[in-house]
Amino acid sequence: MNIPLIVIISVFYIFCVLILYIALLAKRRGAKGAYVNNLGNFIILFSSLSINLVLVSFFHFSSMQFIVFPFDITMIIFFPIFLLIFSLLMWREKRIISDESKDETFITSLESASNELPLKYEIYRKITHLLVIGIILFYFTIGSWIRDILLDLIQFLPDTFSDLFFSLFLNGAHSMIFNQYLVIFLVAISLFGLLTADFTRILKPKLYPLKPVNQILRKKELYMRLGPHISMAIGCFSIIILYGLFQPIGPIIISTSMIMSVFGDMASNLIGRTFGKTKITPIGKKETNKTYIGLLAGFAIAYLSGALLLLILKAYYLFNLWGLLFIPLIGALIIGLLDYFDLEIDDNLTYPFILSTILFFISFLFI
User: Fold this and answer.
1) Whose CA, among 65, 165, 311, 344, lies 20 to 30 Å from 111?
2) 163 shares a domain with 78
3) At residue 243, what are phi and psi to the nearest 5 degrees?
4) Can you tell me the mean pLDDT for 216-226?
5) In angstroms, what CA-CA distances link 339 with 54, 150, 301, 336?
6) How far is CA 208 from the centre of its chain?
7) In a domain, 329, yes or no
8) SS3 content of the chain, % helix, strand, coil (to 5)
9) Are residues 187 and 223 in the same domain?
10) Orientation angle between helical segments 228-243 and 347-363, nearest 10 degrees
11) Which bin fits 29, alpha (ψ -120 to 50), beta or left (φ > 0)?
12) CB neighbours (10 Å) of residue 150?
């Protein structure tokens, strides 16, 4: 393990410790829901990092590493630059809140928050989830374009650079090695930025420079609980570093799980909220805001989106017909069950992680 990789892994383990600290702080303050959710995020991020390191360092199930040059160096350069910019934004925010009237406005906005967002803000929340489509594009389209452009450019460089590029990114049976490292890099720096901002929102709320974002957060998400965007980022990052190692199955299952999670959740929430009448009462729990119409809509849209993506990605070259039918069906059933039981842990985390984990192992039955 080289020094840049040690630095990067250490940074994310430090973030794991901070997430655990916030979880314990939430428990101490009596915020049980925030404690459970934050602890779930900690467990998944910590476990995924650790399992990835074990797989690539000791068992060698894949020829790939966690991250390689030049992505590792670029990531390390990004960290201090982002922290500097964010610190300046916090300093600017500190000057703004010195105005007592603006400070009172901020406090009032927190107190007036509700767990039932206006439909407009609910739509905004769901639209942000469509960013996972970008991950899929980088996996299967944009990443390959960038790789091909670099292949053309390195022809003008000394052989040392071209040999290094080929040894790192074109040394396997599959052409998506470069894409995997690129996706890890992009999601990792996004997670770094999002976690830094959310730690500030929770621990130093008055200095949080992105206060308009609070408008799309429910009341229970405004204090000690990690935001839904953090759960989504951790869920995506975890499955990418775990299952992206195994190509070509890994990226296909990751992409299918993410697209099913996003569209299933969007359909369940928006259709259920608009047309649903009968509320769901899970076994052993009180009545929730979710409806049976939303549950069925989420199941149907999740299945259709998963099946369609498998066809778009030409997964019929990898899986047999039964796989094309049952992989999205099993995924949709999992989403339906998770939606029904309405776990305390954010579904932005549970959907992609649980879905990818189960579908990854089941998919080998259909090769």
Assistant:
1) 344
2) yes
3) -100, -15
4) 79
5) 33, 43, 13, 5
6) 22
7) yes
8) 80, 0, 20
9) yes
10) 20
11) alpha
12) 13
Residue 4: pLDDT over 70: yes
Give the three-class secondary structure for 237.
helix
Same domain, 105 and 224: yes
Q: Which domain holds residue 227?
A: 67-245
Q: Does one domain contain both 166 and 267?
A: no
pTM: predicted TM-score of the whole model, two decimal places: 0.89
Q: Is the pLDDT of residue 82 over 90?
A: yes
Query: What is the per-residue pLDDT across 130-186, written as a single tens digit (0 to 9) for each?
Result: 788 888 888 888 888 887 787 777 777 777 666 666 666 655 445 678 888 899 999
Query: By percentage, how much of the chain surpasses pLDDT 70?
Result: 86
Residue 321 is assigned to a structural domain of this protein? yes
* Inside any domain, residue 187: yes
**Dihedral of the CA atoms 8, 12, 14, 20 (nearest 10)?**
-170
- Residue bearing tokens 């797989």: 55
Query: What are the distances in angstroms from CA 299 to CA 20, 237, 287, 339?
Result: 33, 24, 20, 9
User: Does residue 317 share a domain with residue 220?
Assistant: no
